[in-house]
Amino acid sequence: MASMIKGIPVTLYEKTVIGKDEFEHPLYREIPVTIENVLVAPASTTEILDTLNLTGKKAVYNIAIPKGDNHTWQDCRVDFFGMSWQVIGFPQQGIEENIPLEWNQKWQVALYG
C-alpha cells in the first residue's frame, strides 16, 4: 500500500572534486541533481539549540531522504521553498528493512551562506 505521506522535490548540489588550489586544498564543482520525495519538517527547539551548540549553525529544517538514495549530502547545498540551505551535522540513519515508511536518513539544514 502506498504511503499517504509525500515529500517534495529538492535540488541537491553534490560536490565533485575538480582539482586542488595553491595550498593543496580540494576545489569543488557543484552538480545539481533533483531528488524526489524528500520530507521537510521544521526543526524542534531542542534540535535547534543542540545543533547550535555542536556546530555553531542554526538548524531550521529536518529533511528525510528516501530509502535507496546514494548521493552525498554532508555539507552540500540544497534548494527548496525558493531558498538555499546548507546540510549540516551528521545524518541519523536507520536500517532500511526495519523502517516502515519510505525514508531512512535524516539531516538538518541551516540557511546557506
Would you mind describing this structure in some detail?
- The protein is mainly beta and 113 residues long.
- Helices cover 10% and strands 53% of the residues.
- The chain contains one helix and six strands, in the order E-E-H-E-E-E-E.
- It has one helix at 45-55; strands at residues 8-20, 26-42, 61-66, 77-80, 83-93, 103-111.
- It has a six-stranded antiparallel beta barrel with strand order 1-2-3-6-5-4.
- A hairpin with a 2-residue loop joins strand 4 and strand 5 (83-93).
- The chain starts with 7 loop residues before the first strand and ends with a strand.
Widest β-sheet, arrangement of strands: 1-2-3-6-5-4
Mean pLDDT: 92
Main beta-sheet annotation: 6 strands, antiparallel, barrel
Structural class estimated from helices and strands: mainly beta
Figure out the total of helices.
Answer: 1
Q: What is the gyration radius calculated from CA atoms?
A: 15 Å
Instruction: Name the overall outline.
Output: globular
Number of strands: 6
Helix content: under 10%
Q: Helix-strand pattern, N to C? A: EEHEEEE
What share of the residues does DSSP label as strand, in percent? Answer: over 45%
The termini sit apart by 41 Å
Low-pLDDT segments, ≥5 res: none
